[in-house]
Give the backbone structure.
Amino acid sequence: MNLSQRIELEKAANDGGFELIEPQLDGSVALASSDVEAQLIVNADDAGFFVSIDNGGLARELEAEGRYELGGPQTFLARRPDNLAGLIRRIWQLSRALPDAPLKRFEDALAHAGEEFRTEVEAMVRRRLGQSEFRAGLLDYWQGRCAVTGIAQPELLRASHIKPWAHCANDAERLDVHNGFLLTADWDAAFDAGLVSFDANGVAVFSPILTEAARDRLGGGRLRGDRPLTDKHRQYLAWHATKVFIG
């Protein structure tokens, strides 16, 4: 890694949330963050920057997006500095959302909440804290944009559970980013009411009781292609199709 590449890497790392930068004896550079668990090893040559991820699940999610060139096992190649900056930032976002980061932050918040947890008050506070972390996880996972329309105005977006909070077996399901979509308010309301669902390919399926005017308002729809459905999404959607959707 030459000096110019080192400077570009440090800028991309700091901008992308990885503020802990440690040169290694073999010439590579290790990146870490106080906010996420992912750790990266970056090498560089004439082809570009090779970014290796220590988390196999995170690497598989990134590969499934299809936007980043593979450079080896759990390794991605960024041929230009702007590609590197986007790659590092996306790794940081996914690391905040996967696999159970929202759940861990929720449990940490519960541990520091003190004596306010009692009976009904406890349930209310737990739900508020949990939904806040769930929303934060979805914002990272869907990159701050509606899963259908792509709208990127946070005030218009809702964290919509596929399997509703009250029906989840445990906090792991409630805080699972695969158990939800980031949706605009109208899509969120229709989805929660069972007036719309999504098939295994992410195509919107409309209830026969949805009025023509309401359907026109929603427009045709499918989930964004840049964030493919996972098998866990499909498991939750199968539950939604039988328990919530009005067919």
Notes: The radius of gyration is 20 Å. Residues 17 and 92 are 6 Å apart (CA to CA). Residues 3-97 form one domain.
